[in-house]
Amino acid sequence: MTAVRPNAPTPMTRVLLVDDDAELAELVGEYLAREGFSLDAETDGTRAVDRAASGDYQLTLLDVMLPGVSGFDVLRALRATSRIPVLMLTARGDDVDRIVGLELGADDYLSKPFNPRELVARIRAILRRTQPDGGGPGERLPERLSVDDVAVEIDRRLVRRAGAPVELTAVEFALLELLMRAAGSVVRREDLARGALGRSLLPFDRSIDVHVSRVRKKLGPRPDGGERITTLRAVGYLYTRQGVPGRL
Amino acid sequence: MVPGVFLKILLWFWTSLVLVALALELAITATTTPVEVRVSRFSESVLTSHELERTTRIHAVLLDPDGYDVSGRTVPPKPVAMVAARALASGQTEMEADGHTAVKARAVAVSGERRYVLVAAVPIGLMRLLHDGLYAQGLRLLAVLLTAAAACYGLARYVVRPLATLRAATRALAKGDLSVRVGSTMGRRTDEFMELGRDFDRMAERLDALVTAERRLLRDISHELRSPLARLNVALGLARQQGSEDQAVLDRIEREAERLNALIAQLLMLAWLESGTAAPARKPVDLADIVREVAEDAAFEAKSRGREVEIAETCDAVVLGDPELLHSAVENVVRNAVRHTREGTVVAVGMRHDAHAVPARIRIWVRDHGGGVPDAALPYIFQPFYRVGDARDRGTGGVGLGLTIVHRTIQLHGGTVSAVNAPGGGLLVELGLPG
After folding, report:
1. Less Cβ around it within 10 Å: N or C end of chain B?
2. What are the b/e assignments for A160-185, b being 16+ CB within 10 Å?
3. Cβ neighbours of residue A57 under 8 Å, at least 6 residues apart?
4. First CA to last CA across chain B, in angstroms?
């Protein structure tokens, strides 16, 4: 057994950067290489969709402001075929871009110019949720969660509703896991952000709300017609069980 | 639509038409007076049957064979005598008429051989109208009024309709809908209104192009200025990663890069606020929440620098506005105060309903214990990049646009901003919001 540095996952995690700034791509590539990631750059939006969906990469960094095709178009096209984690790069202060990006299925966003340390932290936070746990195989039984007609296999990252599979992105899966583990009691927005996004919320940060609303839409209502995930304004969210009132 | 021009045109044309009609009737009456006089003289001289005249407006007279009026032995006017003579000779009904009066004569046999002539003067044509009863005259007047009103209504509508279209379009434009055009709604007119409409369309098109260009420019500036900054940040990260010896220099570079980034963000924010296209949201905003959040955050940071922030007074206040813009305005003022207050002092933040203001106002005030601002400089501290003096601003970390953005933000919310030197030293900034 060779010692594995925590900062250098092996084999090399491959990341695709979609940005028209070739010089920036070069610098980011150099930085990420030292952190144990291999970065490829793509400047063309249309080609980016195919490359990101090819299965060669574990994560995509996507700049919203691309010449020609908008980053949103790329994201929309990508989400039609692939669940690869996407970290959006947006202009600072452009909240509309952020919300639109999250609604189209981006996992998180980072405003540009960014601190490369923050970039690495975000990438790691997203990957931690998408890649199987570091623990050796066979050491424990596959964990299952189920509430009403929704069943989740944590290790295989599978969600089924009444037997039919439901496609969730990495962040959505992490949110559902957190909410279902605490089913019947309220999870604070801040805790959801730490647990699912790996960061704390900024003022006026609607990331969690957008992600939760996507989960809601994908799961649909409970068999009895009730809302699965209820909102407690300014507090958090509550995964309800059929016929059981929630606790605060 | 304001009925002003429409009503004026309608009344003006209607009144003139009615006046013309009345004048015409009066003029005709005036020019026919000689005939009238003639008839009435005639009737006076031969008044034999007042009753007949009063009920039928027919002057009737009986002439004897010699041509004299039987009642007064007077000779009737010449035209009457002539018709009478003709009737006597022919034995049939004879008639003579000018434009206003018809004279009919017929011989009648009374007591044997003496043949008399009955002559009647009947008003005809327009003259007959004057002799009609009040009811008929009123009916005619009403017909004139109504016809004129209908014609004038149509005319006034025709004139005013394009104005109303233009007005609606101008309003939409002023509200920010730059895609509004009137060309297709003006119909097939070829008049000044049409021209005005076309000019309006050209103006709207130009405005649209300008605003679009400005927005694109802002976006491009934002992108182009930030691209080198993004590279700088990553390069800085690389330098740290490779274990550069002088971390302090790197810290300094990083701080300056962050300032540059903040400055770009503020410049873009200010450009947006000043563009005139900025329309803040109008959501209910709990100001007490904002003040509490800002004070808590600022207190946390101030503590590390040996300063404090506390809320001196608060109240329930909900205003309509953009929560994010208002939050950042209050935050800017509080941070500015924290930067300038002396070490070991307290920045006090408060809010209250202004008891005297009509309409109601909410005041948020922030008071620091710093050096204050020279009175002469107070009016200028909300201007972009205004620096009171080296002593106050060196090393305080502001980029010089914070208070300007506060000012514009509060103005956009219909409020006011003021700054005074507090008694006992320090600056007191007040934000007044309608609430």
Report:
1. N
2. ebeeeebebbbbbbbbbbbbbebbee
3. A14, A15, A16, A40, A51, A84
4. 32
CATH number of the domain bearing residue B76: 3.30.450.160
Distance from CA of B324 to the nearest CA of A (A): 7
Give contacts of A 43-72 with B, CB under 8 A: 65
If 0-12 CB within 10 Å is exposed, 13-18 middle and 19+ buried, where does residue B386 land? Answer: middle
Model confidence over A189-247: pLDDT tens digits?
A: 888 988 888 888 877 788 888 899 989 989 988 888 888 998 887 788 999 887 765 54
Q: What is the ipTM of this complex?
A: 0.71
For residue B227, the enclosing domain spans: 176-279
- Domains of chain A, with CATH numbers? 13-130 (3.40.50.2300), 144-239 (1.10.10.10)
Residue B25 lies in a domain: no
Residues B168-218: tens digit of each pLDDT:
899 888 877 788 888 777 766 677 788 888 899 999 999 889 888 887 787
Mutant choice from B233, B267, B331 vs A, greatest count of A C-beta within 10 A: B233
Distance from CA of A57 to the nearest CA of B (A): 22
Separation of alpha carbons B105 and B123, rounded Å: 15
Q: Are B325 and B363 in contact (CB under 8 A)?
A: no
Tokens of A60: 């995509």
**B289 shares its domain with B217:** no
| Nearest CB to A31; choose among B227, B241, B327 | B241
Annotate B367-411 with three-state secondary structure.
ECCCCCCCHHHHHHCCCCCCCCCHHHHCCCCCCCCHHHHHHHHHH
**Nearest CB to A204: which of B232, B235, B324?**
B324
CATH code, domain with B254:
1.10.287.130
Strand A108-112 and strand A86-91: the pairing is parallel
Provide the domain count of chain B: 3
Q: In B, which residues are within 8 Å of A21 by CB distance?
A: 227, 230-231
Which among B222, B232, B233 has CB closest to A91?
A: B222
Residue B243 has a pLDDT of 80
Q: How far apart are the C-alpha atoms of A174 and A194, rounded to whole Å? A: 11
